[in-house]
């Protein structure tokens, strides 16, 4: 026998297992296969069973003592009642509504608009599945009550701000009840109408027709504002119950051919996820117009009458009265037109105002506070941000400008270009020379500061606003002359700048490089900007669309005039993807021509659709693309280096390498209010 085997003890169990390991593996594999087959058979049986939920229910009954109901899709998770009240009526109605809704076993929250921050919280209603009810009163001269003033102002600005868009609140469901008095006919329920309109413009879904309470018992539809509210409340609760069942739209009783989609939808069993799928790609019929009828019965009657082509003989008298009324109105309009024409002829010898009534209406709607006949001021969104203790704009990052103490204004709304990326969609006038009435600079500065302070005052008590920032914001320390138009066109621009500096207000002035003579004659400002929107003649013509025929020569002469200025100067480059981002060498040559102290490179901001521009979001460069452009440009201009970055604004700063001029010294102090000489 082999002596090596003598050392092994085959009686050991471990040795036996090791020798027979393959049989053990085979047994485990066979058992696992049987278990898999058993599971497959069970699943097939459950799948083919017609009452697959019964065994589960029976099992729950046996084990837990109850039968669990299948989980249903939740269409309404709660109701939020927002109220803005001056005398307490709207708040009282909100309390009544909350008590009435308690019977529906839904979470109900009452929210005072004074304590609500729409900037942060309104977007939450898009996905919350809540239904929001707004009870708002109209106060003196059609203004909202003090508690709802900030909410209404924010909502109006958001509705008219292209950056929010038409789908910002898509998914939010709301209903509005306004409180007013028809004695003041011109302002009757203005706030309720506006809130309804602005929510609709932002893409929110109106679940029912707006209700209007009338404090004038003579003309109130139900006899009093309380009765008006009770009628609206009843409809709202009924609509809410329908929404909880999954009905998408209220049935008005005018279903054609006996088919009622809402009833069919409500009778169907709701499947999981159907709430999301039921949203159609288009707005509902009652969402097509922001100003719907406030009386469903009236609208139903009108629809019924319009669908009937036969005219009753008794109605002919009304029709003839309507025709006569239109004829009288036409004659009156022609008389007014002739009077206007005669007035225009008599004033033809005088200079006309730059701001026409139509322009005033358009700019006021955009949030401008207009001054005199050609100036304006507007509150920047970064000012609002910094008032609330948040970040400032790129000027704060680059130069230390405190955004909440910055006033954005212009002494001239007119411009000599029609840039494709114009923020105002060319609502401002254009011209190559000053041909309008002229206001005095003292009046412009005084009213600009007053209007700016009045806009700041509106933030008092707004949620999130810091008290110390609010107090500081009342004192203007910086003026950005870059709001809109071409400020250098204003004939008294030098006097206006002198007044600014005398008030210890620093000045950043931006010009579009089409007025070289005015640049040469301009007195020193704290910082002088020239917009360099392109580096070749063809691309400048496409992007800026200047009015001057000799625009390119004017552009080059403006850069040369900038180089001769003994003060701090800046190039502002706006990158438009597929338009002006491939001209690096030409940009480098323009830098050597003007020799600016700084170069700000910023990606274009998309301003929404406009018939005046073909730009889309595809033309907006990514921040990484702007960074790459800046790095490549710096390689071509060795006297410059990248100094700072503000990613939120998609902007970078390039600074000149100067021995006697270091970047950190730019942090804004009172010493820099007066213009800084290069020497």
From TrEMBL:
Membrane-spanning regions, if any?
22-42
Give the record's keywords alphabetically: 4Fe-4S, Iron, Iron-sulfur, Lyase, Membrane, Metal-binding, Nucleotide-binding, S-adenosyl-L-methionine, Transmembrane, Transmembrane helix, tRNA processing
Q: Where is the Flavodoxin-like domain?
A: 79-237
Q: Which reaction does it catalyse?
A: N(1)-methylguanosine(37) in tRNA(Phe) + pyruvate + S-adenosyl-L-methionine = 4-demethylwyosine(37) in tRNA(Phe) + 5'-deoxyadenosine + L-methionine + CO2 + H2O
The catalytic activity of this protein is classed by the Enzyme Commission as 4.1.3.44
A GO MF term: FMN binding
> What pathway is this protein a component of?
tRNA modification; wybutosine-tRNA(Phe) biosynthesis
Q: By what name is this protein known? A: S-adenosyl-L-methionine-dependent tRNA 4-demethylwyosine synthase TYW1
Keyword Lyase on this protein?
yes
Q: Which residues form the Radical SAM core domain?
A: 399-645
* Biological function: Probable component of the wybutosine biosynthesis pathway. Wybutosine is a hyper modified guanosine with a tricyclic base found at the 3'-position adjacent to the anticodon of eukaryotic phenylalanine tRNA. Catalyzes the condensation of N-methylguanine with 2 carbon atoms from pyruvate to form the tricyclic 4-demethylwyosine, an intermediate in wybutosine biosynthesis.
Q: Which Pfam families match?
A: Flavodoxin_1, Radical_SAM, Wyosine_form
Q: Which family does it belong to?
A: Belongs to the TYW1 family.
Say yes or no: keyword Disulfide bond present: no
Bias kind Basic and acidic residues: ranges: 276-285
Which stretches does UniProt call biased (Acidic residues)?
A: 286-301
- Superkingdom is Eukaryota
Q: Which terms does the UniProt entry file under GO BP? A: tRNA processing
Which cofactors does this protein require?
[4Fe-4S] cluster
This chain's source organism reads: Bos taurus (Bovine)
Q: Which PANTHER family match?
A: S-ADENOSYL-L-METHIONINE-DEPENDENT TRNA 4-DEMETHYLWYOSINE SYNTHASE (PTHR13930), S-ADENOSYL-L-METHIONINE-DEPENDENT TRNA 4-DEMETHYLWYOSINE SYNTHASE TYW1-RELATED (PTHR13930:SF0)
């Amino acid at each position: 026998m082999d002596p090596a085997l003598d050392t092994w003890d085959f009686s050991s169990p471990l040795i036996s297992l090791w020798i027979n390991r393959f049989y053990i593996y085979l047994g485990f594999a066979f058992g696992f296969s049987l278990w898999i087959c058993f599971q497959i058979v069970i699943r097939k049986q459950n799948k083919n069973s017609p009452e697959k939920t019964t065994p589960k229910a029976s099992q729950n009954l046996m084990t837990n003592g109850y039968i669990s109901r299948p989980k249903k899709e939740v269409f309404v998770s709660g109701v939020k009642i927002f109220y803005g009240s001056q005398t307490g009526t709207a708040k009282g109605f909100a309390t009544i509504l909350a008590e009435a809704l308690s019977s529906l076993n839904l979470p109900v929250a009452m929210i005072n608009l004074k304590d609500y921050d729409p900037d942060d919280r309104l977007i939450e209603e898009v996905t919350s599945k809540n239904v929001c009810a707004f009870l708002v009163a109209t106060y003196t001269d059609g203004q909202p009550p003090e508690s709802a003033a900030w909410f209404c102002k924010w909502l109006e600005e958001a509705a008219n701000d292209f950056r929010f868009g038409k789908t910002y609140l898509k998914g939010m469901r709301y209903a509005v009840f306004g409180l007013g008095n028809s004695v003041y006919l011109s302002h009757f329920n203005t706030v309720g109408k506006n809130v309804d309109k602005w929510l609709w413009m932002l893409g929110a879904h109106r679940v029912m027709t707006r209700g209007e309470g009338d404090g004038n018992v003579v003309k109130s539809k139900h006899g009093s504002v309380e009765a008006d509210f009770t009628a609206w409340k009843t409809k709202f609760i009924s609509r809410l119950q329908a929404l909880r069942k999954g009905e998408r739209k209220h049935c008005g009783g005018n279903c054609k051919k006996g088919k009622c989609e809402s009833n069919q939808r409500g009778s169907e069993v709701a499947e999981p996820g159907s709430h999301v799928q039921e949203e159609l790609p288009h707005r509902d019929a009652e969402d097509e117009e922001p100003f719907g009828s406030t009386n469903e019965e009236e609208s139903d009657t009108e629809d019924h009458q319009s669908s009937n082509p036969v005219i009753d003989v008794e109605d002919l008298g009304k029709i003839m009265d309507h025709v006569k009324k239109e004829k009288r109105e036409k004659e009156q309009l022609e008389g007014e037109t002739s009077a206007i024409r005669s007035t225009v002829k008599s004033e033809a010898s005088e200079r006309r105002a730059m701001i026409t009534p139509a322009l005033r209406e358009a700019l006021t709607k955009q949030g401008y506070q207009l001054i005199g006949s050609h100036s304006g001021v507007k509150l920047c969104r970064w000012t609002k941000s910094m008032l609330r203790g948040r970040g400032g704009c790129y000027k704060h990052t680059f130069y230390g400008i405190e955004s909440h103490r910055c006033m954005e204004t212009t002494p001239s709304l007119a411009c000599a270009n029609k840039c494709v990326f114009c923020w105002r969609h060319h609502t401002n006038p254009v011209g190559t020379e000053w041909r309008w009435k002229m206001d005095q600079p003292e009046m412009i500065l005084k009213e600009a500061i007053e209007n700016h302070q009045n806009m700041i005052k509106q933030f008092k008590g707004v949620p999130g606003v810091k008290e110390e920032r609010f107090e500081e914001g009342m004192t203007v320390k910086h003026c950005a002359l870059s709001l809109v138009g071409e400020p250098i066109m204003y004939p008294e621009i030098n006097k206006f700048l002198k007044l600014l500096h005398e008030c210890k207000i620093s000045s950043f002035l931006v010009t579009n490089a089409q007025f070289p003579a005015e640049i040469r004659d301009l007195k020193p400002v704290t910082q002088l900007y020239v917009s360099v929107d392109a580096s070749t003649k063809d691309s400048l013509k496409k992007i800026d669309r200047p009015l001057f025929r000799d625009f390119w020569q004017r552009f080059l002469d403006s850069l040369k005039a900038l180089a001769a200025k003994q003060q701090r100067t800046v190039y502002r480059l706006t990158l438009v993807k597929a338009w002006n981002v491939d001209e690096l060498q030409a940009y480098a040559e323009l830098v050597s021509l003007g020799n600016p102290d700084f170069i700000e490179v910023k990606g274009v901001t998309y301003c929404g659709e406009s018939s005046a521009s073909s730009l889309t979001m595809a033309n907006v460069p990514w921040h990484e693309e702007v960074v790459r452009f800046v790095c490549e440009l710096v390689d071509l201009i060795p006297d410059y280096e990248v100094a700072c970055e503000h990613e939120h604004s998609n902007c970078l700063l390039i600074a000149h390498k100067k021995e006697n001029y270091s970047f950190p010294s730019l942090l804004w102090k009172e010493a820099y209010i007066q213009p800084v000489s290069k020497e």
